[in-house]
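Work Package 3 (structural annotation) set out to generate three-dimensional models for the target panel prioritized at the project kickoff. During this period the team completed the workflow that converts sequence records into discrete structure tokens, so that structures can be stored uniformly alongside our sequence database. As a representative example, we reproduce one entry of 238 residues exactly as it appears in the project archive.
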Amino acid sequence: MINPLLHNEIEWKLFNDELNLMADKTHVFKASLSSFSHLIQEDSKSVLSIQELKKSKRFIKKLDGERYAIGKYLLRIILSYFTGISPASLKFNTIANKKPAIEGIEFNVSHSGNLIVIAIGPQMIGADVEFINKNFDYELILPNCFNQNEQTFIHNYDNRLLNFYTLWTRKEAILKASGEGLADDLCDLDSLSNYTKRKNSVFDISSHIIDNEYIMSLAMNDNSNVNYWHFKEFAETT
């Protein structure tokens, strides 16, 4: 049987800086981290904050630091299109669980492997993307993270690995949308329904395969009007 929660790949439109994007709609961007690595070397000091630059240097693995810097870089570039503020001048507030925020815009970032996903919109939103690691022994964490119905779902449908990543990203997306971060009650968090209530908000959850190598889940108040963009090239933003 085929996993009923997992949808086919999304049709991503190519983003360009001449588009007039409105913040009253939800936009999801995907980008290849490696395609922006050269820009980090050239422009990071003029775009990232001092704190972001320092944090990027504290990672034990250099690659992890570079991915963090690219993620912050792309987030600033993309947010500038919606705010009209230059990437370097954007100021982030900190809300619950140290979640960064900008007044009037909801956003969430997730990256795994060579892919980054940035979701932006007027409503509470959470995004999680995971590289499908065929060597990951997911069975070890099932009892601590999934209730019995979820474990049955994982084992009863074709391709158990995809089933695991589908439910895992759904849980992560819900918790990121609600602003909780990773919680201790993962078994109690229902990831099988397409709608779930968390922190007095109802979230619509959807899951998708991206580029045949990743699974992405989104949680938002309303997913009826979402634009999907492939952010391939750097565009000058003033």
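The two ends are 51 Å apart (CA to CA).
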